[in-house]
Design a protein that fits this description.
The protein has 327 residues and is α/β, with parallel strands linked by helices. It contains twelve helices and 14 strands. The radius of gyration is 23 Å and the shape is elongated. The structure holds adenosine-5'-triphosphate and magnesium ion (MG). Adenosine-5'-triphosphate binds next to strand 2 and helix 2.
């Protein structure tokens, strides 16, 4: 029994199909108590479907989910007492004030009025919403709405929290603030599962990460395990569209390992045990083929590379001021 008490959430081979769409195609994961678990994946990967299943909002077609040792389908009422959910789209009533929202949710949890007031006050302070506490939520900015929504998920004092893309659309400073809050929540002993499309976020917050794509877990580990799973340097090449096919041919003559091509930027990545040597060989070979690279770089593997290698897509970046797209 001692072993299971350390596990907060256990998911075994869950499947959820919507007609032809395999939203979840056999997902398994385990979240240990007091940890932050990150589900990382591109659009449509199945992240929200996992979260909604854990939060008892949808039932899997097959497989098993237990939270605190209880089956979520059989014991949904007890499970709901243990969990809090902040969904992907902040579910905030426009016409209620921040304080009213928190009070209402607290009352839904049957928290006595006096205690509800206390919790609302405390949360408004923690979420830096005191000044806006008595304004209707329709006057809130996007970041304020997300904080209020997170507050609503905390009113019931859940041990386990599910946050679906908690920082999407937030500016870098607000994102950092929310990261701070998330770390505090875990330091207080809570368990968290969050989804994100940002690698930096998974890297910064999560003890363990699963990359999911097309309803399947394609890779799991700690951030550093994921990075070292590639083990080798990455040489990245970008050429003009008209040179792309020829550049790929050149690359294939140089390396036995399969190059990966980013779907969007079309940049070609090659893994090599000695990146610098590969870079020189590549430059020479491209020169012979009369191809001029528009960009060429060698770097140590990053979580980005893992993501690209397993999903074929580049992850979203936290807002940066990159040069505008090439013509
Ligand atoms: N109720 C539904 N009916 C039909 N298809 C659905 C339904 N819910 C989800 N899907 C499909 O299941 C797949 C996974 O969706 P999900 O919302 O879990 O992805 P996600 O990883 O959260 O994506 P995003 O990053 O865009 O939020 C998608 O192809 C989606 O269209
Ligand atoms: Mg989603």
């Amino acid at each position: 029994m001692k072993n299971t008490s350390e596990v907060a959430v256990e998911v075994k081979n869950i499947k959820k199909y919507y007609g032809e769409v395999k939203a979840l195609d056999g997902v398994s994961l385990r979240v240990d108590k007091g940890k932050i678990y990150g589900l990382l994946g591109p659009n449509g990967a199945g992240k929200t479907t996992v979260v909604r299943t854990l939060a008892t909002l949808i039932e899997p077609d097959s497989g098993e989910v237990t939270i605190g040792g209880l089956d979520v389908v059989e014991h949904s009422t007890q499970v709901r007492r243990m969990i809090g959910l902040a969904g992907q789209f902040a579910a905030v009533d426009d016409y209620l004030t921040g304080r009213e929202t928190l009070m209402m949710v607290a009352r839904l949890y049957h928290v006595p009025k006096k205690e509800a007031k206390k919790r609302a006050d405390e949360l408004l302070r923690r979420l830096s919403l005191q000044d806006a506490a008595d304004r209707p939520a329709k006057t809130y900015s996007g970041g304020m709405r997300r904080r209020l929504d997170l507050g609503a998920s905390l009113v019931g004092k859940p041990e386990i929290l599910f946050l679906d893309e908690p920082t999407t659309g937030l500016d870098p400073r607000t994102r950092q603030e929310l990261w701070g809050l998330i770390r505090e929540l875990v330091a207080e002993g809570r368990t968290l599962l969050l989804t994100t499309q940002y690698l930096e976020e998974a890297d910064a917050l999560c003890d363990y990460i699963s990359i999911i794509d097309r309803g399947k877990v394609v890779k799991s580990g700690t951030a550093s395990q994921l990075k070292s799973s590639l083990g080798r340097d990455v040489v990245e090449l970008q050429v003009k569209d008209e040179d792309h096919e020829n550049a790929l041919k050149v690359v294939r003559t140089l390396t036995k390992s399969k190059p990966t091509v980013d779907e969007v930027t079309k940049s070609i990545s090659i893994r090599a045990s000695k990146g610098a040597e590969m870079l020189i060989k590549l430059v020479n070979a491209l020169d012979k083929a009369k191809i001029k690279p528009t960009d060429l770089a060698v770097h140590r593997p990053s979580l980005d590379d893992v993501f690209l290698a397993v999903t074929g897509k580049k992850p979203k970046r936290v807002a940066t001021k990159k040069k505008k797209g090439k013509k």
